[in-house]
Every structure is written in C-alpha cells, then in structure tokens.
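Quick one, T. Sequence first:
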Amino acid sequence: MRSFISPVVASAALTLAILTSSGARAQSTTAERPVVCAALSVAEPATLIDVCTALIENPATTESERLDAMITRAAALHGAGRTDKALAEIDSVITRDPSRARAFRARGEILRQTGKVEAAFDALNQAIRLEPDNATGYANRGNAFNNVRKYDRAIEDYNEALRLKPDFAQAFADRGAAWYFKGEYQKAIADYDEALRLEPHRARTYSNRSAAFRKIGRNERAIEDVTTAIRIDPTEPEFFDNRGLDLAGNGDYAGAIADYDEAIKLRPEAKFLTNRGDAYQARKDYDRAIADYDAALRLDPKFQRAYNNRGAAWVKKGDRRRALQDYAEAVRLNPSDGTAAANHKEIMQQIERLGSLTYQKNLPSFNCATAKRQVEKAICADASLAQLDRNISDMFLRAIANAEADSHRAALALTRQQRDFIEKRNASFGKRGYDLRQAMEARLEKLNAIARQ
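Structure tokens:
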C-alpha cells in the first residue's frame, strides 16, 4: 500500500504578504504604543477603524489626510471581514480623487486576497501608471502574479520594486516565495536571508524559510526557523502545524502531535486534524487517527486527503469495505490524485482476490443510513436499483483511473459528466416522464462504452 501521506498537501504552505500600504503587516516587537491611523499600524482592525473614523470625522483634518485615513480604514474593514464595505470605501476615495495611486493599490490588494485576480490586476496596473516610481505597486502586482502562478512575471515585478527600494524587506520575502514556487529553493533561502537581515522580527518569513530548508533536506534548520516563528508569534496555528510536519518527518510523532494539538486549540481546521491523524496512524493508533479524520471531515466534508488517509487506517484495521468507500470518495473529489487512485485500485484487487465482493451486493455507492434525498431513498429501497448504482460507481472509478493515465483533462471532463448525471438525477426524480431505472441504465451503458474505447 502506498504511503497515506500526500507529499504535496502535507507540506507546509507559504503565505504571501497581507494588506498594508507596503504589502505586508509587520510583527509588533515593541511595547504597545498609542494607535494612530497609519498604513503600517499593527493595531487590531476594530481599534484601527475607530481611530481612523475619529480622524475622518474631525473637521480639522485636511482632505488629503482624510482620504488617506479612509484607505487605512478600508484595509482595517477588510481585515475585520467587512470586505464589501472596504471596497465601497475605496471606491469613494477614487471618486473624490481618481489620481490617488494608493487607493488603487489598496483596491488591488483587497481584490487579490478575495480571489478576484483579474480585477486586482486592473487596479494594480492603474496604480503603477499613476506612480511608476512606487516600489509597493510593483511588489503588490508581483503578489498577484504569484497567485496566478506566473512566477517569472512576479520576479520581474519584485526586481523592479527592489531596484526602486533596495531595503524593501517584504519584497525580498515575497520574491523568495516566487523562487520557492518555482522549485529554486536556494534562491528562495537567499532572499529570505536578506529579508530577515533587514527585518529580523517577521515570523512569517522565518516560517517560509523553514519550508525552503525542508525542501532541501535540512530539517534541523527548518525546525529552528519555525521555532523562531513560534517564539515571535505564538498565536499563529500554521506555525505549530508546520513544525509538527517537520517533527513527524524526523520520526518524532509524539512531538508532532503536541504541536498539532496547539494548532487545533488555536484554530480547528481540517488540515490540522488530518495531520494529527497521520501522526497517530504512524504510531499505529488507528482509532485515534480515524477519530481525527472524522473530525476533519465534519469541518470540511470535501477535504479529500482525509478520505484517502482514513482509507489507509481502515486497511490497517482490516476493514476493506470502509477503506474502499473512502478511497472511492478521495478519487471522486480529486481524480488527479494518483496516490488515492492507486490505493483504490489496489484495495479493489485485494477484495477481488479474496472473493469478498459479496459484501457489496445490492449496496449502493452511498450510505443509506444517512440518505436524505428522495431519489437516494428510492435507490436504497430497491435492491436492483442499489446494485445498479453500485455498478455505475465502480465503472466510473475504473474509467477515471484509465482516463487519468492518458489525460488529466479527460479525467476532469469525465468527472464533470458524472456530476451532471447525478445533479440531473436528483433534480428530475419524481417528475413526470422521468424514468430513474432507464436513466441509470443509460449512464452505465455510457460508462461501459467509455471503458471499451
């Protein structure tokens, strides 16, 4: 059986800079100071909103200062989860001063962080047109290029930002991320080194350099860096999760579990629970591992890796039926996951060799105990429909495995076809003229025809 830990999704994730006027929020390293309405403020969003509002509403505030305060308040509103109001605030600033580049930079960053990358590029390009000598504009656009995986273009923008501002620590850090995503880990480390030389108290940069050290096999340095990140900012669960991955990679599963515990305490997430489940599984504590995978899937029912790894735990416990169901769901959620597809194929072969397929007879591909839709209840109530549903599912999974071997695009197209069939089945059942059995038989025949090609 292949490893239950996916080498891609289990690795530490890099996080690009978050919004301020310079493209990142620095770690606070000094005693608490009076909060001012300024772009580089590390104040809590609610506090910053209040301070900026007071400045905006002060009759003595100049128009230029008021507009800058509105931009800073918009950034704080976005940080507080009120993104629509933040964008409306930025739009108000742009209406009053269409040549204010900082407003376009802020708009672009908010749009980038909310996944609206094309609109973000429009705003960031306008910011650069208005202020072509502003390093932050290029750095922010570099982050957008990183988001769309155009790493060479990102590096060009970071280079320009650093030409304009050679001591721009965040630009070094973000260029390091671009090198990392390109697989140029030594260059990434060099940029992180420079970023930390300039600003030695950025926890995120230590965490990102840790990931690069891990990639070149320097696990001890990786652990040192992420431990420093935790010391600077012990409130960030990702740092504990990343150190847990490092410790697990060194075989220290007890230490890894302690770090995952801390990450989950700070912010329960499916990936943290799945990583802890992996550590328990490595220690052969399969019941605790399965409990963690269950908890992960309650938080995120579409977290694909939890299905694959829970399937591996069921295999270790000797429950091939549940393992097969989990592997099938993992393949359905991500047909391009070669590990899940191989695991599904292998457990199917084991079941066939053992002559154990009888347990599937007249069982549909889903759990009848939790079925809620009327069409699913109808399938569960009719043994022949249940078997037909099982046959469709099995043939689909085999067709996906065959398609993925030839073309990822073909596998995705086949997945879309299957989803369309299920959605149409769910929507059409009970309507006049719809024959469920006929539709299912036609789908099975279609899948058989694909398999014969």
